[in-house]
Structure prediction request, 292 residues.
Amino acid sequence: MVPVIRELARCYQAFQRASDAHIRHSGLTPPQFDIVVTLGNTDGMTFKDLGNRTLITKGTLTGVVDRLEARGLVARAASPTDGRSTLVKLTPEGERLFHRVFEPHLAFLAPAFESLPECGRKELEKRLRQLRLALEKRSQDLARQG
Amino acid sequence: MVPVIRELARCYQAFQRASDAHIRHSGLTPPQFDIVVTLGNTDGMTFKDLGNRTLITKGTLTGVVDRLEARGLVARAASPTDGRSTLVKLTPEGERLFHRVFEPHLAFLAPAFESLPECGRKELEKRLRQLRLALEKRSQDLARQG
DNA sequence: GGGAGTTAGTTCTAACACGAACTATTATAG
DNA sequence: CTATAATAGTTCGTGTTAGAACTAACTCCC
Prediction:
C-alpha cells in the first residue's frame, strides 16, 4: 500500500511543480490562476460556488479574491437575490488575461499527458476515481465516529 | 486531458483530507507527521535528506523542525563529519509518538486501498510513475528555456 | 595553501491553508 | 409573527509554502 501512496503523492506534486512553474509566468499564483480559470466563460458566481469548484475554503477565498480585485482582474457585486451572497466576476481585463493564459497552459502540459497511450489515460482515470471514492468514504467514516 | 488532471487532483485531495483528518487526532500537523514518520526507525538524518524524502523545501523545514523541537519530539545535533550539516533525530518521546501513530494511521487508510484489487493497485502505480516521469521532464524543459 | 565557487541551514516576505469566532441575512418552527 | 436555526462572507490565529537573500563551512583548482 505504501508504494501506491508514495507514487500518488509524487505524481501529484510533479504535476503541481510543472503546472505552478508555468503558471507563475503569467504573474498569477496557482490559487489565483485557479479562480481566474474557474470564472472564465461564466457570468460570475458566488463565493460558495467558487469554493466548491476550486476546493478552496471560504476563509482563504476572501484573501485570494481580495488580491485579484486589488489588481483589477475580478470584481465583487452584491447578489440581487440573496443579501448574504456576493458575486465574483472577471473584469474585462480579467477576461483578457484568462484568454491569454488558459489555452497556452493546457498546451504546455499536453506533451506530458500524451506520453501515456490513450487507453492508459482512461485506465488511470478509472483507477483514480475508484480510489478517490473509497478515500471519501473513509473520511466520512472518520467524521461519523473517529 | 483535463478529465485525468481533475481526477488526479481530486484523488490526491481526497487522500489528503482523509489522511490529514486522521493525523490531526495525534496532535501533529500533516508536515510534522511526515517528518516524524520519516525519522522513525532511523538514527536521524540531515535537513537535506529530510527535505529530499519529504519534498519539503529547506526554508519551510526550518520552521517545521523548530516547532517539533519546541515540543520535545526531535532534537538537532551538529554533524560530526560536516560542519555545515545539522542532524535531526527523534527524542525518546518522539519515538514513542511515532510508534503510537504510524501503524494505526496505515490501518486507518488500508480499507480504502484494499478496495482496489491487487492488480489494480499495481496498474495504478505503474501509470502514475509513467505520468510523473513525463511531468518531471516537462518541468526540466521549462527550466531550460521557458 | 589560498581564493572561487558550491553547499547546508537560517531568515525574510508574500501568499495560502484550515478552523473557529463573528456579523449580517435568510429560512424555519411553533 | 417571532424566536431559533442555518447560511454567506469576513476576520483572526497558527502553521505551511516557495523563493530569494544571507552566513558559515566545505571543495576544487592552480
